[in-house]
Amino acid sequence: ELNKELGNRFKYDNMIGKSKPMQSLYSLLDKIKGADSTVMVQGENGTGKELIAKSIHYNSHRNDKPFVIQNCSAFNDNLLESELFGHTKGSFTGALKDKKGLFEIADKGTFFLDEIGDTSPQMQVKLLRVLQEGTFTPVGATEARKVDVRIVAATNRNLKEMVEQGTFREDLYYRLNVINIRVPPLRERKEDIPYLVEFFLAKLHEVHPAAAKKVLTKRALEKLYDYAWPGNVRELQNEIERLFVLSGEETKLMAEHLSGKILESAEKTKVQGARLQGKLKDALE
């Protein structure tokens, strides 16, 4: 609570970070708690867009209602339509009985549409209708159904560019982009790495009691700082698990057990953890 009052938080639900970009993200999430507006979460793969969607749902007044997730790039158009809106018995080969769509299941709750940028123009029209009128028609049905669903959409693509290229509908873009949340990539908040490492080791400790004694060496931490993390937080989590496994009985997590790509990157940059210690002039160099 004290940290919260001071405006410095290490944690927001399952998101970890004390850096300035994360503090801004936490305060934005605080502001939209009471709102019912559509939210667009934009960020690279592995930054934790789903965690943000969950946080939005569980801190809202809809928190006791369903939270439904669908990745839009997981299905082709026909399957996605049936998945989202449901279908009636006999509407296509294999439709042996009526099936509820995810929009109906998410009624009164929150629907997280991941990778919304991968939807086809036809699907975008149908999604726009749900957003504007709150109605949809199951595949094979004649009557529209009404739902009350809050949409949180996410993408790792630049939708504004896609609108300009004509591959994403402008009206749907503005419908989705009421509240825009940009998730910072890990390379923009490297000062959070020690907290994230601690958090991942604590998670490993739940399964492996030996993880409690493991400590990351200073040199290993420097190597982690020098790497750009294209796979973001998810990549860091996998790296810590790998380090833990390869360390065996050792209590220290050594730099030599890090992945080749991280060691190579550190060799190329030769920064050697300048962000952690030494003179400002050297760090700047």
Task: Describe what this molecule looks like in 3D.
The protein has helices at residues 2-6, 20-31, 49-58, 77-85, 102-105, 121-133, 159-165, 170-176, 193-207, 218-226, 232-247, 260-269, 280-284; strands at residues 11-12, 15-16, 39-42, 67-71, 86-87, 99-100, 110-114, 135-136, 145-146, 150-155, 179-182, 215-216, 252-253. The chain has 285 residues and is an alpha/beta fold. A five-stranded parallel β-sheet has the order 4-7-10-3-11. Strands 1-2 form a two-stranded antiparallel sheet. A hairpin with a 2-residue loop joins strand 1 (11-12) and strand 2. Helix 6 (121-133) crosses helix 8 and helix 9 (193-207) crosses helix 11 (232-247). The model has no long low-confidence stretch (mean pLDDT 88).
Distance between the termini: 39 Å
What does the average pLDDT come to? 88
Order of strands side by side in the largest beta sheet?
Answer: 4-7-10-3-11
Low-confidence stretches: none
Helix tally equals: 13
What sort of overall outline do the alpha carbons produce when their principal axes are compared?
Answer: elongated
How many β-strands, per DSSP? 13
What is the string of helix and strand elements? Answer: HEEHEHEHEEHEHEEEHHEHEHHEHH
Helix content: 40-55%
Query: What fraction of residues sit in β-strands?
Result: 5-15%
Structural Rg: 22 Å
The biggest beta sheet reads: 5 strands, parallel
Structural class call reads: alpha/beta
